[in-house]
Amino acid sequence: MDPVNDLAELLDIAWDAAEIGRRLMTTTSPGRISAKSDRDLVTELDVRIQHEIRDHLRRATPGFGFLGEEDGGGVLASAGPVWVLDPIDGTSNFAHGLPLCVTSLGLVDDGEAVVGVVVAPFLGLAYHAMKDGGAYVNDARIHARTNDELGRAIVSLGDYDTGPDAAEGNRRRFAITRTLAENVERVRMVGSAALDLVWVADGRTDACVMLSNKPWDTAAGVVIAREAGAVVTDLRGAPHTFSSGETVAISPKLADPLRALLARATN
C-alpha cells in the first residue's frame, strides 16, 4: 500500500485504532501507576492501549513501521511510513482524574506527518486530518484563528521540565512564561501536547509553545494544525520537522509578532 496515494483508507485505519484508545480509557481503570523517570508517570493502561493499537496496525498495514512512547522511546525512521502513537497523551492528567488526555496517532511518511487522529474521550472531541484534505473536529471543518492582536491571544505552554537537569531546562520556560504573561491575554498549560496543537487548529487558542519535540507527542497534532492553516515551526521560525528542538504552532496573523516576542524572551 502506498501511503501517499491511499491516505483516505489509512485515515480510516487510524480511526479504528484510535477507537481502541477511546474505548479503553472510558471503560478501564488506570491500573498500576509507575514512575518512568522523575515525575513522569506511566499506567498499566498506557501500555495495554499501545499493545492493542500496535497489534491492530500491524494487521491492517503490514510492513509499516511503528513507534510508540511506551516502547521506551526511540528514533523516528527517516524513510518509509511509520505509525507514531502516544496511547495516553496527558498521562498525569489521566492518572489524577483530569479530562485533558487523548489518544494521539499519526502516520509519518519519509519524515512528513500525513495523517493524524487525536481523540479526547472525556471531552467528546475527535480531531483528524490528512495531508491536503483539511482538518476536522467531530466531522466539522476547523480553521486556525484570524486574530492579529497579541493582547487578545491565548497561548498554551508545554509542561515545565523535570529530571536532574530541570533547572537548566526551565530557565527558558520561565523566561517565555514571563514575557507571554506580560504581552498576551492569557497563558495556559494544558498538559497534553496533542491537545495544545489541535486547539490551535480549532481556534480555541492562538498558539502553543513546546520546548521539546517527541514524535509521539506531535506527529498527529502537527498535520492537524497545518491543515487548519496554522504555522508550525521551531522556536527560531524554521519549518518544524521531527528533528526540531521545539514545536511552535501559531495562527497565521500572529506568527511574526509572536515569534519576535519569543526571540526576545530567549536571547
UniProtKB/TrEMBL annotation:
Organism, as annotated: Amycolatopsis cynarae
SUPFAM superfamilies: Carbohydrate phosphatase
Keywords: Hydrolase, Magnesium, Metal-binding
EC assignment: 3.1.3.25
Protein's name according to its UniProt entry: inositol-phosphate phosphatase
InterPro entries assigned: Inositol_monoP_metal-BS, Inositol_monophosphatase-like, Inositol_monophosphatase_CS
Catalytic reactions on record: a myo-inositol phosphate + H2O = myo-inositol + phosphate
ATP-binding in keyword set: no
Biological classification of the source: Bacteria, Bacillati, Actinomycetota, Actinomycetes, Pseudonocardiales
Enzyme class: hydrolase
